[in-house]
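Translate sequence into structure tokens.
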Amino acid sequence: MTIDWGSLVLAAVISAGVTLGVVSLVAFAVVGLSARAHRPIGGRDDGAPPPVRPAVGAAIAAVCVVAVALIVGYGLFLVVT
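Result follows.
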């Protein structure tokens, strides 16, 4: 039995890259949704405008979640076929 080390390393690198990408997209979605959170009165940023409008944050979150769903769906498609 022989192992094709080149293919194994390629699969490991691609897997690590996709994992990093999916985790990053989910993190960006959470940050985008945090723009909709209410800021406490008397807090550190009291009176300051939010860095991103809530609608823009929600749009960023939606795009990130759709991208993650497409990546996971494609991976499942590759496993099933």
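Note: The first helix runs from residue 5 to 33.
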